[in-house]
Amino acid sequence: MDKTVSISAFFPAYNDAGTIASMVVLANKTLTKLTDDYEVIVVNDGSADHTPQVLAELEAVFPRLKVVHHPTNLGYGSALRTGFANASKDLIFYTDGDAQYDVCELEALVALMGDGIDVVNGYKISRSDPFYRTVIGKTYCWIVKLAFAIKIKDVDCDFRLVRRSSYNRVRLYSTSGMICVEMIKSFQDAGLRFAETPVHHFHRAYGKSQFFNFRRLFKTLVDLSRLWWRLMIKREAQLAPPGSGALDIGISQTKSKGNDGGTRGEK
Known about the structure:
alpha/beta
């Protein structure tokens, strides 16, 4: 590895007090092996548990950790957009703060980020969720791939490494979990080049998913239909004008240490 490559790693966190510390520790350990120039960012999306207090303790220990607090829960898409907007390094990696993916496998993504690649996307070797969630997840991915002409194997695998210059070529608007579909579709439309690698998926050890309930599933269906209409029927352009730099559309955020505001709030 060329250790001159700079990397930002960020984690959206919503009520992840039981897992976010291990994510930060492992991220620092992994990034130290990969590069001399890195940062770790946690986007605390209005957590109602002890996530803010845990992050305050971590900031005192890890000088390269930056915490961004949303004063209220703004949604998974907003948290991702905040993370990307605050990332300053050449490569940007993100995964969720619930520790269902192993941060150490970032090494496999970095190894595939060659000169001809813009995005390295993980895909789950197997899904470590209850049977009904696995079925719903696979059905969702199949529908999304068909409806949006998605070419990668697993659009729902939030374990991604992206060139910052490539991310800045698109505009993202979603505030919900629909941002993953919007992101990959926009990357494809922008002509970005993908590589893929298998990654492990683990049982949720702390907290619970906010996605798998009837109200949330119904909202997801509505949001997915609206996104499909916008991107596939109206074909609204989501490419950034050349030279426009980083774009952050309509995100309200507060940066501070120890803010009482606290993401996977609806994904």
